[in-house]
Amino acid sequence: MVHEVLRHLPLAAAAGWFLVAGVQVHRDRFRTWTEVFFLFACLAAGTYAVGDWFFFNATSPSAAILAAIASLASLAFAVLFFVLFTLVYLGRMRTAYWSLAAPCMALLVVMPFPGVMLAEAVRPDPSGLFIPVFNPPAFMVYLAYVTGFGVLGIANLLRLYRVVRGQSRDLARRTGGLVITFTAVVVLGLMTNGWLGITRDTQIPPPFSTLLLAVAAATMIVLFPGGQERVSVAVRQWQESRYNVKAAFLIFKDGTLIGSQSQPGEVLVDNDLLTATLDVIHNYTRTSFPMLRVKWLRSVSFGEYNLVTERVQSCYLTILLEGEESDQLRRQMRDLLREFEWRNLEALARWRGVPTDAEGVDDLLRHVISREHEAI
pTM of the prediction? Predict the structure, then answer.
């Protein structure tokens, strides 16, 4: 009975992670590095669970070995993207972070060779489950990689907990639960999958990815709560000391200015001239570099200042920023744009270049300029 449950339980874990990924895509959460890394981590975790299901239901040792290698490779990717997500979520993407992929790539190169990582797959009971027999030295290296990256990711989650603890007791409670869940999975994984792999025990089937089912549930609770508070808003508030929004410009896709606002005392160039210049830059980039498949220019830097642009369907939102942008700031811009376009569907569909035809322009720009902390 236990074996039958274990045989199909990975499908539940896979469904949980693919559900999280589906929610991300549905909410248009795949535009920034933070969102991309989180999405890939969910997909890799789900694929890891699918590999386990194929392993437990394999009909031959060769098929079981192939499924086990695919499962191990997916887990290697999952912990890599987990660490990258937690690093960028609290900061910004840096080129040096790509060096973290080196251990993962090295493992993926040697993993498929016969006998290097997985010696064989055995089935003590003809009607039972396959059990992997690992090469202990290679498996210990793999285990050290997974454990090390898992601990690094948990350390970043602890930093996140300290960030939100001073802003919301409810967010701190949910984030603390996520830290506890990830820590428990790492410890239990070492005590079960890790120990059974090192000792080459062929009597007890390891639980494999079923442990990640709890992580998927905790992630859904923390990142997609039913209430108004959002972890991303708390992080954005914490990051606001790193930048200062000087001005904001709402532009229709044909280059006409819908509205603009600036900080008191800021002296800027003519708004129409600025928007026309931005439109020229966008068009020049698209036509001059077709191989890059550029839809719009996301940012332009000059000294300490940056022009940061986000687009949804019909409009651009461009801000003049002093300091470093963040993924959470871009998320806020995109969500405000989406809300504005939904509110003005008819006006934007028959746009005549008259700013007064659109509603909520001042509210949108004020949210960006004045740093009002709405829940998104």
Answer: 0.80
